[in-house]
Write a structure and sequence with these properties.
Number of helices: 7
Largest sheet: 9 strands, mixed
Radius of gyration: 21 Å
CATH architecture of the largest domain: 3-Layer(aba) Sandwich
CATH class of the largest domain: Alpha Beta
Number of strands: 17
Strand content: 25-35%
Order of helices and strands: EEEEEEEEEEHHEHEEHEHEEHHE
CATH superfamily of the largest domain: QueA-like
Strand order of the largest sheet: 2-1-17-16-14-3-12-13-15
């Protein structure tokens, strides 16, 4: 299929720049993929679409303040750095622990700068230049470098003090303290636990304790996977044919209790409701591995890295229903949704969402595909 087949017109005014005034009040379009019927509801109404036989699966990754703004001390020029993922010191060294380790810590980072970067350069961050980053070597992607941080205190402690929440590029920020405090709270799910993402699994941003309590009262079980979201989630598809696009690898974990719950749900004829594309990618990755190995059950517990690209045509092994936000034109996320509900049906639903004034992207409204 051609990338241009997933384009749609979107007025800039519908790109949400801030979260809803109160979490859990967002609008929810419900798309029935068997009939094409569309309903206009709110996120709290998701309880009505689930039964005790169903299973809700979320991604419990946690966004950390991965964006650093500082300077090159030799020229006092500005530099911006985005921490992507931790890199071991060598093949026999564990990945550094941000919450405890000090000294030399190596990370793979994206660097934005007005100057050409070179190996050995040092950037400083924080009011007193307390965090230093030395460029070790360029990596494969544009602006990607292996960086060695020097810190006298735990890295996470420093990031909490002067790191910034890495909101998506279409969310415009002026760098005010008020915006940062808002993003620290709202660009994070209420069940976030495993630190490691530079982008939030945004379909989960809508849930509140009250919605979870209503689901629990109805007998709906909730389990979690972990997939640490990288900046590749915003990387545009530049290939003319979507089959030529390649996804970035992202680390995931499926706990034993989650694998057991998914297999039990499938065995009893229940539906697996996936919250967000990252949950779908994780479960479909492990399901494909189980099928290839001839293993028992639909999924299995384990950890790894996924670069699965789900686009039409695709046969889903796990996901029966999906809660997701409205996605960018020609994005891999829109292609995944189209694989589940059909390209024409999804684009018609998006056109209706535009006419009805739904808010789009990370801080916007959501869609439930059943």
């Amino acid at each position: 299929m051609k990338t241009r087949q997933f384009w749609y017109p979107l007025p800039e005014r519908l790109i949400a720049q801030h979260p809803a005034e109160r979490r859990g009040t967002e609008r929810m379009m419900v798309l029935h993929r068997d009939t094409g019927v569309i309903e206009h509801r709110h996120i709290a109404d998701i309880v009505e679409y689930m039964t005790p036989d169903d299973l809700l699966v979320v991604n419990d990754t946690k966004v950390f303040p991965a964006r650093l703004v500082g300077e090159w001390p030799d020229t006092h020029g500005a530099v911006e750095l985005l921490m992507v993922n931790a890199a071991p010191m060598d093949a026999e060294t564990d990945i550094p622990d941000m919450a405890a380790d000090t000294g030399s810590l190596r990370w793979n980072c994206m660097i934005g700068s007005g100057r050409k970067c070179r190996e050995g350069q040092v950037a400083e961050f924080g009011p007193k230049g307390e965090l230093k980053a030395r460029l070790l070597k360029p990596l494969g992607g544009i602006g990607m470098w292996k960086v060695e941080f020097e810190c006298g205190r735990p890295l996470m402690e420093l990031l909490d003090e002067f790191g910034r929440t890495p909101v998506p590029p279409y969310v415009k920020r002026e760098g005010t303290r008020e915006e940062e405090l808002e993003d620290r709270e709202r660009y994070q799910t209420i069940y976030a636990r495993e630190v490691g993402s530079v982008a939030a699994p945004t379909a989960g941003l809508h849930f509140t304790p009250e919605i979870f309590a209503a689901l629990e009262a109805k007998g709906v079980r909730r389990v979690a996977v972990t997939l640490h979201v990288g900046p590749g989630t915003f990387r545009p598809v530049k290939a003319e044919d979507i089959e030529d696009h390649h996804m970035d690898f992202e680390a995931f974990t499926v706990p034993p209790e989650t694998a057991a719950a998914v297999n039990e749900c499938k065995a009893r004829g229940g539906r697996v409701f996936c919250v967000g594309s990252t949950t779908v990618r994780t479960l479909e990755t492990v399901a494909a591995a189980v099928a290839a190995d001839g293993g028992e059950g639909v999924v299995a517990a384990g950890s790894g890295a996924s670069d699965i690209f789900i686009h039409p045509p695709y046969r889903f092994r796990v996901c029966d229903a999906m809660l997701t936000n409205f996605h960018l034109p020609q994005s891999t996320l829109l292609m995944m949704v189209s694989a589940l509900a059909g390209r024409e049906r999804v684009l018609c639903a998006y056109a209706m969402a535009v006419r009805a004034g739904y808010m789009f992207f990370s801080y916007g409204d959501c869609m439930l595909i059943v």
